[in-house]
Design a protein that fits this description.
single chain, 256 residues, alpha/beta, Rossmann fold, Nucleotidyltransferase, domain 5, 2 domains, 6-stranded mixed β-sheet, 5-stranded mixed β-sheet, 11 strands
């Protein structure tokens, strides 16, 4: 595999989306080519193993058909993330663990504001989402201390993802903390949080500096749509932490 990341674009209508991903993730685009005599599926097959990671701007049906017959071994197949043209869902489709598709799904989702869809059991069964808000340039050590201070019976290996807002997407301390703990960081748009102000107590500082009532609680709640806030906002040295637990799907089904 020569080049690390490629984008397969099925239709010209996704030009803007492909260009954004190309710019932000340093990828190579394979655009539609109506003049080529080969079918798109054949052209995709000819370059599939030339890249270690793929973003397919396609429907699930197209992605599955294109991949049919190309998969060889989970330890050597490229990572494949499927993104619909409306940029709603970034789905880790192939090579979730071994090739890094789960991590790529979060990268894609954070660029376009999509929901990362991870189905590997070790991630999907983790029941907790951790929302974090922090002041500028807070260290990874400070975030670690605040998280440890907030968590009681919950352990970090039960955390599915850490969630914050776009204004904090490049905080070095937060990025480093997530890297050290091997927990994916999910970014939500500030306007998404502004429309869902679910907070137990508003923060004057956050309101004055960010224009929101809070960050950590609504981030965790938005990221876990069927979750319950089990640890309300807890603060320590400029870091705010909240934890939401997913409602078990069986319990939810039985409630009906």
């Amino acid at each position: 595999m020569n080049e690390p990341l490629a984008i397969w674009q099925v239709r010209n209508s996704s030009n803007e989306l492909a260009n954004l991903l190309c710019e932000r993730l340093n990828a190579k685009i394979y655009p539609p080519d109506s003049k080529n005599e080969k079918s798109q599926a054949d052209r995709f097959a000819s370059v599939f193993h030339s890249h270690s990671r793929w973003i397919m701007l396609a429907t699930t049906g197209i992605a599955v058909r294109f991949l049919n017959g190309l998969m060889q071994d989970k330890n050597s197949d490229p990572a494949v993330v499927m993104l619909d043209e409306a940029a709603r869902f970034a789905t880790s489709l192939l090579g979730g663990h071994e090739a890094g598709a789960n991590d790529l799904a979060y990268q894609v989702a954070n660029v376009v504001g999509a929901v990362p869809v991870i189905s590997t059991a070790s991630e999907a069964l983790k029941p907790y989402v951790l929302g974090i808000g922090c002041r500028k340039n807070v260290s990874a050590q400070a975030i670690d201390a605040a998280v440890s201070h907030a968590l009681s019976e919950v352990t970090l290996d039960q955390i599915r993802e850490i969630v914050t807002i776009d204004l904090k997407s490049r905080e070095p301390g937060l990025i480093e903390f997530c890297r050290r703990k091997h927990i994916p960081l999910r970014i939500l748009q500030s306007k998404t949080i502004a429309s869902r102000q679910w907070v137990t107590q508003s923060s004057n500082w956050v309101q004055q500096n960010i224009g929101l009532d809070g960050v950590c609680e609504p981030c965790a709640l938005v990221a876990s749509s069927r979750g319950t806030l089990i640890i309300p906002k807890t603060t320590l040295n400029g870091v705010a932490v909240a934890v939401v637990e997913d409602i078990d799907w069986k319990s939810q089904w039985q409630a009906y």
